[in-house]
Amino acid sequence: MHSCSASKPKIKGRGYYETWRRALRRTRRAVRRSSRIFNRRGLADPPLAVTDGVPGQIRAVETCFPRALRQRCLVHRMRNLRGKAPESQWPEIAL
Asked: pTM of the predicted model, to two decimals?
C-alpha cells in the first residue's frame, strides 16, 4: 500500500487509486469537450454547473467555465447526510 496525500482518496490498493485517476481524467476531458462545443456554437458558459462534490469535477468546471456558478447536487448531499446521521435525527435533517 502506498501513502496518500490529502488530495488523494484514502482507499487501499493501487488498482483502486489508478481507476479513480482514470475516471478523473475522463471527467476533465468531458468538461473541456463541452466547453469547446459551447464556444464553437457561439454559446456562453452555462450559468450554473451542478456537480456531486468530486474534486476533479469541481476543478474541471472552475477551469473550463470560470463564469459559471457551481452548486453541489442536493440529491448527493442528502444521501451523504442520511448515510452519516443517526436515524433519530433524520426527520430534522430532511426538512
From this structure: 0.54
